[in-house]
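Residues determine shape. Take a concrete instance:
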Amino acid sequence: MNSLALEFSRDVLRIIELNDSAEVVLKKEINLGFNINEVNLMKKNRKEIYYLFAEALSNVFPEEDESPLNAGILINTDQTFLSTLPVDFNEDQSNIDSHILWELSNYYPETYKNFNIKYYRLNNNLTGKNIDDILLIAVDKNRIELLNSLCIEAGIKIRNIEISHFAAEKCLPADYKDEAQNILLIGCRNLRMDFSLIRKGKLKNYDYRIIEDKNFQSSVLSHINFLKSSFDSVKKVYLYGDDYTRSISKFLNEDFEYMQTALINIDGTGDISFCPLYGLALKNSLTV
């Protein structure tokens, strides 16, 4: 059974489909005609948005095929709230939950109760034995509701909704779970860089940087220096994203010769933008 994944990235829809052998049989990038980040505007113009989305899909999938599409859905990191913070795990769960909610309320004082919230313990113990960092993930419920209704109107049955950067991890080489050295995964989209530090297949640190004035060098250097001081040196770096990613890769190759740096190329075409989609489609194909 083929595995289908869709990614919403501002005004772009990316589509990938894998066959039973995990080979790419469909790969498309099309303009939606609306920006998925503009939730309030989309809610005001639902009928027009539904029509534009259905029209975009009709250009990819034949109209005579009336069976519903079963797809995994990706949203980009700029459509979420992501933050790492220390948590005292000596506290009971209710206190931990209150601390997390308080953190979110500092950023969204009026709407923090309208978020779906998850967190992952990073087990890096930077501060102490029982004080550990977590990765807080929060997504506005309005955004999820809008995606659900958009897909239902277009005849898409959503299998799961995931965040693009973390789906990209599935595209790393198979032996990364046994790698005792630090691996850095960098995604670059729309002048935003997302960084994940991984050791033995486990996420140990996450951060992101906005590239101001297209000066990515200082952001990359600052983050690598932080990782070196807190987690030891990074030995391997994998990158994916838009065309700007190639400039980041060139910078790393020229200034950090001790690190192995590679662009994640999923199908040999040199296209590095579909990495998260491939990761989600691959994950779903293995869990049918």
The domain at 3-77+142-166 is CATH 3.30.420.40 (Nucleotidyltransferase; domain 5). The first helix runs from residue 39 to 44.
